[in-house]
Amino acid sequence: xxxxxxxxxxxEAVEESIRAAAGAAGLSVSTWLAQVAARAALIEDGRxxxxxxxxxxxxxxxxxxxxxxxxxxxxxxxxxxxxxx
Length: 85
Description:
By secondary structure, the chain is mainly α. The protein contains 3 helices and no strands.
């Protein structure tokens, strides 16, 4: 696999969080950031696919949206903000 070097700027508090999370996962900062970025890109790809589907076929039915939401919560992609309230 080819890797490319990037230079990024983040606020100090974010840097501290990144370093702590990478350390807790037993990963280098670079590896941790690459994994997080890959996951975020995959999520965005999924969102784009839904937008394209809805543009062509109309909005997903509420039942399907609710089922997808439950799956995303179960897989830890999103948090269940309804439980807090």
